[in-house]
Design a protein that fits this description.
- It is a single chain.
- This protein is α/β, with parallel strands linked by helices.
- It has two domains: 10-158, Cobalamin-binding domain (Rossmann fold), CATH 3.40.50.280; 178-426, tm_1862 like domain (pyruvate-formate lyase- activating enzyme).
- Helix content is 40%, strand content 17%.
- It has helices spanning 21-32, 48-61, 76-90, 101-105, 107-112, 124-135, 197-201, 210-222, 248-262, 284-293, 308-313, 320-332, 350-366, 393-404, 412-426; strands at 10-15, 41-45, 64-70, 94-99, 117-119, 146-149, 155-158, 182-183, 185-186, 206-207, 227-231, 267-269, 298-304, 336-343, 369-374, 408-409.
- The protein starts with 9 loop residues before the first strand and ends with a helix.
């Protein structure tokens, strides 16, 4: 964990894949807040071809080259191939680090493919401490929130004893400029068994304050960037004390302040991509607030199943009636309703799938569109090693038929292949 530097030149290459920009934005923004490591040479690469093309020159101009990846589970095998090629070509000339949802949930499995250090969960503070130690040629072994192998190949997992205050760090890089969606909430109290959010970020909800959010929106406005999107696991819980209720005044304060900054020509997207809302929170009051200030024509509702038994087994804490009411409220207020459903969840039976398909048909008749998913086992969740329910041919035909009609969309076919691959890897 200690490298002898011949020079102060350190390069940090961010593997800036389009699917990982939100997490990398947070990390790079945090690095910029510490003046002692601002002189690190930062490079963005979009894909493996660009990485291998640029790497020889970066190595020639820097004495230490750190390559950082953020990894989703579905990316794990592609990144494994990249790491294998990097090690084959450059050996220990490079230092490889990884963070994100998959490494956080499976640090040892990620170390095994060739990484030097894994960052666990939120990493704004740990990446700063790590880079400061590397720059000073000091040991990094006691940093909280990292995992690594020692010289005896014994794994060390240093858990964190703190949570990040979002107000201390920018949502995106300002020096090495990469604007993007603004994360306004971190953590989730619901602990749904298929989702990593609560288990990776904690079940105590934290918010970026309205004043802080507006500070960065003003910066974007000065750059004529006035399409504003937010990152939050549940858009309608912003400002809630417990994350389970709706704070209408705080929601309106947020959106009205943003609108006053970007003006009538700007656009706000709230309760739509890249966020969603829980069905029990969708009512006329908060929909009216969104309609008053925002520009999105759709609301993304997380239903997940049309079987109450499956919802209860997943610890979803809402019922089927909540889903129907959410869709009716959404459509009656003039929004399109996009509703997420997951097939193949553990303990899901043929009868459960029948109920889900019936619910989907009813929602389509009301006017909704369905975003269909296949369950993907994610590390650090209670469902990770649970036996996956196989999706039957009748369900596949249903999805394909309604996809052809334009009523169902989503990546369920690709996700099914990923799910099978994970199941085979785990022998479940």
């Amino acid at each position: 964990m200690k490298i002898q530097l011949l020079s102060k030149n350190i390069a940090f290459i961010a593997y800036y894949h389009k699917k990982n920009i939100f997490s990398l934005n947070a990390v790079i923004a945090a690095i910029e807040t510490n003046e002692k490591i601002r002189d690190i040479n930062l490079y963005y690469v979009r894909n493996d071809q660009e990485l291998f093309q640029k790497l020889p020159l970066i190595l020639a101009n820097n004495k230490l080259v750190i390559i950082g990846f953020s990894i989703f589970t579905k990316q794990f095998w592609d990144i494994s191939n990249i790491v294998r090629n990097l090690r084959s070509m450059y050996g220990n000339q490079i230092f490889l680090i990884a963070g994100g949802s998959h490494p956080s949930g499976d640090p040892e499995g990620t170390l095994k493919i060739g990484f030097d250090v894994i960052f666990l969960g939120e990493s704004e503070r740990s990446i700063i401490e790590f880079l400061l130690s590397m720059k000073k040629n000091e040991s990094t072994q006691d940093i909280q929130g990292i995992a690594y192998y020692d010289e005896e190949k014994i794994i060390h997992i240093n858990k964190k004893k703190y949570s990040i205050d979002l107000n201390q760090y920018p949502p995106f890089p300002l020096k090495n400029t990469k604007y993007g969606s603004i994360e306004i909430t971190r953590g989730c109290p619901y602990m749904c068994y298929f989702c990593q959010t609560s288990f990776m970020m904690g079940n105590k909800v934290r918010y970026r304050s309205i004043d802080t959010i507006c500070r960065y929106i003003k910066i974007m406005k000065d750059e004529n960037l006035t399409d504003i999107r937010f990152i939050t696991p549940n858009a309608f819980s912003y400002g809630s004390i417990d994350g389970r209720t709706v704070n209408y005044s705080k929601l309106e304060e947020l959106l009205s302040n943003v609108r006053s900054i970007i003006g009538a020509e700007g656009r706000i997207f709230y309760g739509s991509f890249p966020s969603e809302v829980r069905p029990e929170h969708v009512n006329n009051k908060n929909l009216s607030i969104v309609k008053k200030y925002a520009n999105n024509d759709n609301i993304v509702i997380g239903a997940q199943s049309g079987s109450q038994d499956v919802l209860d087994y997943c610890n979803r804490a809402h019922n089927i009636d909540d889903i129907y009411q959410a869709v009716r409220n959404t459509i009656n207020m003039g929004f399109k309703a996009y509703v997420d459903f997951i097939f193949g969840l553990p303990h899901e039976t043929d009868n459960d799938r029948e109920k889900t398909m019936e619910t989907m048909k009813n929602l389509i008749d009301i006017g909704a569109k369905i975003n269909a998913h296949t369950f993907t086992p994610l590390p650090q969740t209670p469902f990770y090693r649970k036996k996956i329910s196989k999706i039957d041919e009748k369900t596949k035909k249903f999805l394909n038929d309604y996809n052809f009609k334009g009523k169902v969309f989503g990546n369920w076919r690709e996700q099914e292949k990923l799910s099978i691959r994970i199941r085979n890897e785990l022998n479940i």
